[in-house]
Amino acid sequence: MKKFFTIASLLALTLSACSREAVKSEQEGKGQVTISCVTSDAVDATRANISCTTPKADEFTLKIEGQDFSKEYATIAEFNADSYLHHGSYKATVVAGDLANEGYDMATFAGSTEFVVEARKQHDVEITAYIANALVQVDVTENFENYFVGGYTLTLTTSAGNEFDVTAQTEPIFVAPASFTIGGTAVKQPNQSGAEGVTVALPEYKPTNVAAQTLYNVTFDVETAGSATLTISLNDTLVESIDIEQELNDNAQ
Hints:
There is one protein chain. This protein has helices spanning 2-28, 76-80, 142-147, 244-247; strands at 30-40, 61-66, 69-73, 84-86, 88-96, 103-104, 109-117, 122-131, 134-140, 152-158, 163-165, 173-175, 180-187, 199-205, 214-223, 229-234, 237-243. The chain folds into 2 domains: 28-131, Immunoglobulin-like (Sandwich); 134-247, Immunoglobulin-like (Sandwich), CATH 2.60.40. It is built from 4 helices and 17 strands. Strand 15 and strand 16 form a beta hairpin. It starts with a helix and ends in a 6-residue tail after the last helix. It is an alpha+beta fold. The chain has a 7-stranded mixed beta sheet. Helices cover 17% and strands 45% of the residues.
């Protein structure tokens, strides 16, 4: 009889413990979340894909924010190893790279998405990371080169103060999406008297509202119909036109 009561007592204790665990689980109200990330190197303006190095999955940091919750993870895998969250609304953000590092093939990728966690359910959350930089490509036309036969120099200056020689640029530069300035000097054609061509300061071009995931293709051209005119175009749209003879400074240093 004592043995029977011992077994019954153990059974009762086990059932009680299971009941408490079930209640605890319901009170915690957690759901399981698995985060994954894909990348896109598409950019606006041309809708073309840009050739750049895309980060690997383990190069993305992850930040998850919710009501009364905010936590950062060194990798996505770190979160997925223990991926239970209380029920509620969240925002997940992934980043690979650093916008402060500007230059050729220096893309930063970032993306975010919002999701809702339900208790005792599995949630697969996919985040698309896009290029977080603005991209700048500077070109000159054959007419420009033929007019400034003495040579020219073009410089791109970013909002962070970084300078890049874009005189003979062949691929886009990745910069922080704030602002940038393009300026330089050029040597004009010798005049009819045979005097040596003078060096002139080219007008600075500084676009506004520079955005991420956007290619800024800036082209310098010279139109020689009538008087010589320097033109600056952004993505094939004319943005500035200057009379070379009257407005360019012949005393550039």
